[in-house]
């Protein structure tokens, strides 16, 4: 009898876990995006130029830039009593600049507001320059309260690595009363000081009683981990984490929540997430003229593709050195052959490096991608029939995208780097190709160290010395041999590339080296063949991909639970 009950309990637990998995109850880590990027800020009167006499104003905000749609979605929270105007301006810190856009939404007596701005092309301020200024941290937010002669300002930068958007819909049970919102921005440091998080919390909850950092998944009650001392804004918190709490934080198990008199179980809540996580990459490519049969072209390109099998949404980054690029084409054909155009991007603005874009693929295009029959071809003014080409494959199965927000501490910069690697199993030979946009580059170095760690100086390798051009300037092409210990860190994602410049001698951009992860749809597909029109006089055989085995196991276990339950009733 007891044996059957033990078996029943085990199977029931497994079934519940499987059920939760398929209902999406595990912490939903937000996917990184090539197209979108987030900049955050903490607003205060001390940042106002000229200096404001009002010292009590404060707030938090974030703006999400969509580079493909040329939109900027800004969310603002503050503690001003009678806000009268809010606007975006352009100027570095401690400088005063012209207004770019004004918030048109109603902000009177509202401590939280948001607006989506459509960025427009101006002859005096081109769109590419607007995006470049934003990425370099030259845009700032201002909120005014003319009734109380108050004004606050915040520079939009990538100084924070964690954030949360609080909402009353996210509490469990769901909160009563009016809609409540809030914004949390935070900076987490792994070393010096050890595992320390600094939080800034702003919200518009009425009659708030206290605020916590909690442990739990969305849609379920949680447990308090840290309490903030302040009830009224501004709310600050500095907490020292344990190793297990750090793991919870970066795997989506922690949230921020505000409680109130009306909602003692929670008035507004939001899961803590990384700011701009690195996208999961499915395939990569190295672009050059050789793949077009031309060996006289020096331009190169690096392609990283993120793909969602369920939605068939393909996001991609194309970092290239082609001057006056005018057209990017995605085509279907194996290496060495030419195929039909699947989709394209046109014009100098759309094809200026780096290219950030997305495309929803058809089923046929989905199969072409996974059969490694898709390639990118970049055309220019000098080479209208194609200057460089690259096949989308899994051959270069390690990659790195180097940005300022991955550096320790974060750096706000528009500069970017893209790298692909091929690790040989035979002798641990690493073949690399690195492209970057830093003109005043001083060093390109490889380190051992996990994300958020400054790296081990004694393990530093100067990659410029392995470059066939013996220079840190882009591109870097070469190889070197790593040892057993380095190989272990390499495959576990505990190595990174860091690029330094004259302005940032200790590192301007950095990127963790991680392995690609081709997605696997729950739906299975039969093997199919089809002809590539107007190119090859042969059929492309496409492999079966996708597996429903996990779903089948889950259903079998649930059926077993049901049978045992019926048996126990008798």
Describe this structure in words.
The chain is mainly beta and 570 residues long. The protein folds into four domains: 36-154; 162-274; 283-395 and 520-542; 398-515. The strands form nine sheets. It has a five-stranded antiparallel beta sheet with strand order 14-11-10-9-17, with no helix packed on it. A five-stranded antiparallel beta sheet has the order 31-28-27-26-34, with no helix packed on it. Strands 1-2-3-6 form a four-stranded antiparallel beta sheet, with no helix packed on it. A hairpin with a 7-residue loop joins strand 32 (495-501) and strand 33 (509-512). It is globular, with a radius of gyration of 26 Å.
List strands and helices in order, with pairings.
Elements: H1 2-23, E1 36-44, E2 58-66, E3 71-78, E4 85-90, E5 99-102, E6 112-118, H2 127-135, E7 139-145, E8 150-155, E9 162-167, E10 181-189, E11 196-203, E12 208-215, E13 223-227, E14 235-240, H3 243-250, E15 254-260, E16 268-271, E17 273-274, E18 283-287, E19 301-308, E20 313-320, E21 325-332, E22 341-346, E23 355-360, H4 363-370, E24 374-380, E25 388-391, E26 398-402, E27 417-423, E28 429-436, E29 441-448, E30 461-462, E31 476-481, H5 484-491, E32 495-501, E33 509-512, E34 514-515, E35 528-531, E36 539-542, H6 549-569
Antiparallel strand pairs: 1-2, 2-3, 3-6, 4-5, 4-7, 7-8, 9-10, 9-17, 10-11, 11-14, 12-13, 12-15, 15-16, 18-19, 19-20, 20-23, 21-22, 21-24, 24-25, 26-27, 26-34, 27-28, 28-31, 29-30, 29-32, 32-33, 35-36
